[in-house]
Amino acid sequence: MKIRLVQFTGILAIGSASTEATLAGLETFRKEVEPILAKRCFGCHGPEKQKGKIRLDQLDPDLMKGKSAETWHDALNMLNRGEMPPEDEAQPTVEERRKLVGWLTKELRKAAKARRDTGGQAVIRRLNRAEYQYTMTDLLGFEMDYSGDLPSDARSLEGFKNNGASLGMTALQVENYLKTARK
Question: Per the confidence metrics, is the pTM higher than 0.85?
Answer without folding.
Answer: no
